[in-house]
Amino acid sequence: MSQHQTHSHHEPRKNWWQRNWKWFVPTGCLSLIAMVVLFVVFIFYSITSVMKQSTPYVDALEKATNNEYVIESLGEPIEQDGMLQGNISIQNNTGEANISIPLEGSKGSGTLYVVGRKYNGKWTYDKMTIYIDASHETIDLLE
């Protein structure tokens, strides 16, 4: 009886990964990019929410939205519109802030600038002004 070998000229089957790897490369890259984008967005949102809870932001917004001249220029309601810019760093009882806050009212828009520092747990402001886009004027909120 002659035994004929069945495996000799049969090419070994490629495993599933070798046949399909090329489908994984693009999706792998895409999901990595998506994760990075999400991470950056997450960081941005957390920074914005921290800034919005900070005393300089709250103080400046309160002063701006209660200033009759600002209300007259921008119209009510006055809301933050767009991205906060700048930075706030706080270490325990000391800190400093330098931020600009885009504002939008029913009549117009402007930008609120705040520069201040925290000393012994209390904020003092070197600058708190609002620039009105339409009239190109700057209103000092510290007066």
Describe this entry's structure for a reader:
With 143 residues, the protein is an alpha+beta fold. It is built from 3 helices and 6 strands. It has helices spanning 16-53, 55-65, 68-74; strands at 79-80, 85-91, 94-104, 109-119, 122-132, 137-140. A hairpin with a 4-residue loop joins strand 5 (122-132) and strand 6 (137-140).
* Average pLDDT number: 83
Figure out the total of helices: 3
Number of strands: 6
Order of helices and strands: HHHEEEEEE
Strand coverage percent: 25-35%
The biggest beta sheet reads: 6 strands, antiparallel
What is the gyration radius calculated from CA atoms? 29 Å
Helix content: 25-40%
User: Which structural class should the secondary elements be placed in?
Assistant: alpha+beta
Coarse shape: elongated
Distance between the termini: 111 Å
Low-confidence runs (pLDDT<50, min 5 residues)? none
Quick summary:
This protein is an alpha+beta fold and 143 residues long.
Task: Please describe the structure with a list of short key phrases separated by commas or semicolons.
single chain; 143 residues; alpha+beta; 6-stranded antiparallel sheet; 3 helices; 32% strand; elongated
How is the secondary structure organized here?
Layout (H helix, E strand, L loop, with lengths): L15 H38 L1 H11 L2 H7 L4 E2 L4 E7 L2 E11 L4 E11 L2 E11 L4 E4 L3
Antiparallel strand pairs: 1-3, 2-3, 3-4, 4-5, 5-6
